[in-house]
Design a protein that fits this description.
- Pfam families: STAS.
- By secondary structure, the chain is an alpha/beta fold.
- It has one domain: STAS domain (Transcription Regulator spoIIAA, 2-Layer Sandwich).
- A five-stranded mixed beta sheet has the order 1-2-3-4-5.
- The chain starts with 5 loop residues before the first strand and ends in a 15-residue tail after the last helix.
């Protein structure tokens, strides 16, 4: 049984919306993340920073959910940035090549600074390729 993720939303003015994610993101629990963040995008919060410091586990379903949310944010003219990912999740992103499209910052302050500077979050270190 998975530890269903919890989402704590912090709206940060015009810069973006920070969502602190805690728990596991797997096949059974990823719909919580998909629905919660999807609703924020639908409400007009298009620049999102997911604080992943509280995520204890993420499998391929979780990765798929993150990519889907990235697509939704971009389709709305926004961005999705991951912040404070664990070493394990960072390794998984590298192994799957998702570090080339998903922007990963050390923490939420760095991610918000990127947004304030207009650096959006269109792609990872590889420079914004589309999937």
């Amino acid at each position: 049984m998975s530890d269903e993720p919890q989402l704590a939303v912090e709206h940060v003015g015009d810069t973006g919306t920070v969502v602190a994610v805690t728990g596991e993101i797997d096949y059974h629990s990823s719909p919580v993340l998909r629905t919660g963040v999807g609703e924020l995008i639908a409400e007009g919060h298009h620049h999102l920073v997911l604080d992943m410091s509280g995520v204890s586990f993420c499998d391929s379903s979780g990765l798929s959910t993150l990519v889907g949310l990235w697509h939704r944010a971009r389709a709305a003219g926004g961005s999705l940035t991951l912040a404070a990912v664990s070493d394990r999740l960072a390794r998984l992103l590298r192994m799957t090549g998702l570090d080339q499209i998903l922007v990963v910052d050390a923490g939420t302050e760095e991610a918000l600074a990127r947004l304030r500077g207009g650096g959006g979050g269109g792609g990872g270190s590889g420079g914004g390729s589309d999937i």
